[in-house]
């Protein structure tokens, strides 16, 4: 098989697609502008401290086993996963707490302290979600997006109604539990879909179910090591990765892919090009204007994008071994349903919810002995809302540091050795993320399935897109599914050529 494939960008979607295609016998090369693989999850080193920069939650480890197996490799020979139990601890606005765990009995004991009927409510909800997962994951999340009419099959009507698409995520959990702490504990992933739970579709109840049913995991060495592991597998199969090699544009002839043109002017021929970059940015910079079709500035201006994130990456000369790997503080503001709280259109400088990842207790590779790293994330407005981060960054940093004791991280400031801060401007300027909206296009009904940009380019023959902007959406789990479908499409189309 002599077909040549170029992948632009070495994010998780690009790496996964490249590994699958290399395993099928194609000749695949990846061109990456950075000095390391991983895209937003490439991480960085600051002195003796190593940090992840993107995802921190690994779901459905079987997806990674399948990825490596598709190329005849064994995932465990490249990277190991550690199961987290409990997997997330939440502190609520009323100072009550909840530890999410796959141990149903331990979880129900906690819920009984909230209200005596909640353990039975959990059993009912879990049973219903199991049926939804079994009926819906494979045809709707794992398979390529269909046309609008393709989702109106009579034989699937019962499955579709089971998801109650008329409900919001908030309504779904409120109907199940009648306790706002549980509502927001289980619907908070909607934030990473660019949505408030009162606006998000109830179909996304599958995300907390998947975590509760199958667990949450951590890759040893961090997510940066996961990216490197996939890259190593790809190279072991004969694939080539060109780092520090930015692509200027996709090389076209009569709206047909010929290859890519590098920043240095060199043109590299290919039978197929796959772009793994932020869609809204890449389509406007890598594709000639005459071939962009509807994807103009005006198109994206009318779309809804996710929040951005304010990030603190802290290297500290102490450990917090008694604190969980994942923690969330859900403030009273998470319950507000008016602007700016419902759409992150202004900076919350009073009582923002926030998340902290404390990876060192289960993975000491990121810091010297006796030291640790902390990853702090706060949802913030994307750049369209005009927050002046040159003015706000230091003050906001101080606010978040002072709030860390809410999750048990006492006295952090006096132990900081290394500190890096990202704002929406960082994501936009340093990572080429459109508007700094790190979770891509929001996942409302008009931006799901057939309404999201497709994997196959609508305007250019033999051009494909992979990543969080295309079906099924953002998040590592869904990006891996996107990569599987991208490789499937490329294989089908190259056979036809």
TrEMBL record:
Which InterPro entries does its entry note?
Answer: Amino_oxidase, Carotenoid/retinoid_OxRdtase, FAD/NAD-bd_sf
The answer to whether UniProt assigns keyword Transmembrane to this entry is: no
Q: In which pathway does it act?
A: Carotenoid biosynthesis
Q: Name one Pfam family in it.
A: Amino_oxidase
Top-rank taxon: Bacteria
Keywords of the record, alphabetical order, are: Carotenoid biosynthesis, Oxidoreductase
Q: Which gene encodes it?
A: crtI
> What is the official name of this protein in its record?
Phytoene desaturase
Family recorded in the similarity comment? Belongs to the carotenoid/retinoid oxidoreductase family.
Q: Which GO terms describe its biological process?
A: carotenoid biosynthetic process
Domain Amine oxidase: residue ranges: 13-487
Could you tell me one molecular function GO term of this UniProt entry?
oxidoreductase activity
The protein's matches in NCBIfam families, at most eight in alphabetical order, are given as:
crtI_fam (TIGR02734)
